[in-house]
Amino acid sequence: MQTSPETRPSLLLRLRNPQDEQAWREFLEIYEPLIERLARRRGLQHADARELVQEVLLAVSGAIDRWEPDEAKGSFRGWLSTITRNLTINLLKREGRQTRGTGDSEFAQLMNEQPDPVGENTALFDLEYRRRLFQFAAEHVQEQFEEATWQAFWKTSVEQQPLVDVCEELGLSRGAIYVARSRVMAKLRKHIEKLESEV
Question: What's the CA gap between 79 and 67, in Å, rounded?
Answer without folding.
Answer: 9
